[in-house]
Amino acid sequence: MFTQFNKIISLSFRDYTHEWRMSGCFVLALASVLAPMMILFGLKFGIVSSMINGLIENPANREIRAVGSGRYDDAWFERFRARKDVAFVIPKTRALAATIQLKSPNASRIFSTEMLATAEHDPLLVNVASKPQGYYQIVLSESIADKLKVHKGERVDGSLVRQFRGKRERVHIDLQVVDIVPVSVISRKMVFVSLDLILATESFKDGRAVTALGWSGDAEKSTMREFPSFRLYARSISDVENLVKDLQQQGINVKANISEIKTVQSIDHNLSIIFWIIACVGAVGFSFSLGASLWANVDRKRRELSILRLVGFHGGKIILFPVLQSMYTGFLGWLLAVLMYLLAEQSINQLLAPSLDIDQVICYLLPQHFFWALALTMFVAATAAILGGIRASRIEPSDGLREI
After folding, report:
1. What's the pLDDT tens digit per position in 261-287?
2. Does the pTM of the predicted model rise above 0.70?
3. What does the alpha-carbon distance between residue 194 and residue 136 come to, in Å, rounded to a whole number?
4. Chain-wide mean pLDDT for the chain?
5. Are 283 and 149 in the same domain?
6. Domain count for the chain
7. Are residues 45 and 231 in contact, defined by beta-carbon separation less than 8 angstroms?
8. Percent of the chain surpassing pLDDT 70
9. Element (DSSP H or E) covering residue 103
């Protein structure tokens, strides 16, 4: 059995290479169908992926912003932290309470700066190595760091002012800059601090004592704390719309970049439909073309195939003869199409992308896309060859004897 199988492989390959002109025509025909589809899919995948990556890489597109103020307790935040579609959520205090004055020895001015509470997994600080911990560490945005003329590792003086019991009071806190956020992430003057520090500043400005920092004031009346707002980021752009709906159902008015996300998703969906229509038409057309060619090839080689039957090859082995030759065509056609695609990809990205003023590549495929194309090509080629193989298996051994 294995001997016959090996012989069929050998005979089909030798016959395929012997008729190299016809075989080459089949390979070129397949590559001429497959290469344009790969280029089309490369454009679709490259352009849409670049747009989606641009949305994902910009955390602002995954941010859901509260409009107005509300009342959010610790239980609310814990409930949302437990959701799989939420990447990050943290409380926000009142804007007036989240302001600090910063002074550096290198700068002549004092800058009033907004504070944002941060923690691990903050999307705005994903590329920042050090996160602020405790009361004395901060991360500065690049715009305020430039104004203060400070660098990572240096110290700045932070001060807070309040009107308490008819007197104006100011406290100072020595802060260490543990990192700086580039302007590409956030352009505003911003200082990222731990939640502990921002809660301490709110308590101080509300006239309450902060024992850990030695700030005097009234005793804390309640351990239950509610926050007027939040900073919330979805895990992916696909989760934004559902999160917005859930929050609105709770009576929370929010804003998000849903229109931009829907535009990109719509482009992806429409281009996918166009691609698969073209791919299906091309696959069906090539299948019929290859099937018809193999059918005619079987008629042309009727004598040779009948002799194979005569020397003991059964119907199943005979079917393998045109199927294997079709597989050779499929593999070589795919290989030629890949080479044609790679040349087209380089040309498109080097010549077309600069003229369109696009920083990212607009045509590319991942390695797994090439393997999927190979698998589909081999499947289509084998399916189309079965028609000719069945016809070959029905050839009687006597047909060859009549022509000898």
Report:
1. 888 778 777 877 887 887 788 777 777
2. no
3. 9
4. 82
5. no
6. 2
7. no
8. 82
9. strand 99-103
Q: Where are the alpha helices (DSSP H) in 206-301?
A: 240-249, 258-300
Full strand arrangement of the beta sheet holding 229-234: 86-92, 229-234, 63-66, 254-255
**Are residues 68 and 167 part of one domain?**
yes
Distance between CA atoms of residues 265 and 72, nearest Å = 32
CA terminus-to-terminus distance, the chain? 28
| 55 has a pLDDT exceeding 90 | no
Using one digit for the tens of pLDDT, what is the confidence trace for 153-185? 899 999 999 888 888 889 999 999 999 998 888
Task: Report CA Rg, the chain.
Answer: 35
- Residue in the structure block whose two tokens are 């030759």: 325
Range of the domain at 194: 63-235
| Structure letter (DSSP) for residue 156 | E
The answer to whether position 231 is within a domain reads yes
> What gap in Å lies between CA 293 and CA 326, rounded to an integer?
10
Residue pair 309/298 in contact (Cβ under 8 Å)? The answer is no
Residue whose structure tokens are 């641009």: 54
| Tokens at 145, concatenated | 């760091």
